[in-house]
Amino acid sequence: MCQVLQVSEASYYQWLRTRTRLHQYDDLLAKIRQIRAENKDYGAYRIFLALPLFHGYNGTYYVILKLCKIYQLMLKKKYHAKGITKADPTAQASENPIQQDFSAAAPNQKWLGDIT
Fold first, then answer.
1. Which among 11, 13, 12, 46 is positioned nearest to 32, based on CA atoms?
2. Does pLDDT of 2 surpass 90?
3. What is the CB neighbour count within 10 angstroms for residue 55?
4. What pTM did the predictor assign?
5. For residue 36, how many other CB atoms are within 10 A of its CB?
6. Strand, helix or coil at 2?
7. DSSP codes of every residue in 15-59
8. CA 10 to CA 17: how far, in whole Å?
9. Which tens digits make up the pLDDT trace of 99-111?
10. For 34, how many CA atoms within 13 A lie in the half-sphere containing its CB?
11. pLDDT at position 62, please?
């Protein structure tokens, strides 16, 4: 059959293994979906912590993570920008007495500072 389909035997057997592998997690996937239906804010780790408590699961976290990724049950991370200062539109701008003229006729006439 592999010669007719022009595929190697190794790739056929690899496909055969992966095709049947996901069906062994059908009952676990149903439990994961039940937990997600009850708790919308649970990610893969919280689901992993809830499974042994309520459903008797004793597997690994990585199986839960893989199933959540494959069946798109992962939470979307909310991005919070840190360190961005937004200007207050109602605030009064400070005066600019130098008007970008940094030349001075003599020393100690203009003093400048940079706070960045």
1. 46
2. no
3. 14
4. 0.52
5. 19
6. helix
7. HHHHHHHGGGGHHHHHHHHHHHHH-TT--HHHHHHHHHHHH---S
8. 11
9. 888 888 888 888 8
10. 10
11. 93
Q: What is residue 92's predicted lDDT score, i.e. its pLDDT?
A: 79
Q: How would you label 70-108 residue by residue, b for 16+ Cβ within 10 Å and e otherwise? A: eeebeeeeeeeeeeeeeeeeeeeeeeeeeeeeeeeeeee
Q: Is 48 buried (19+), middle (13-18) or exposed (0-12) by CB count in 10 A?
A: buried
53's tokens: 């408590």
Identify which of 51, 71, 70, 68 has the alpha carbon closest to the alpha carbon of residue 59. 51
Hunting for tokens 């690994």 — which residue is that?
Answer: 60
Q: Model confidence over 55-91: pLDDT tens digits?
A: 888 889 999 999 999 888 887 777 777 777 777 888 8
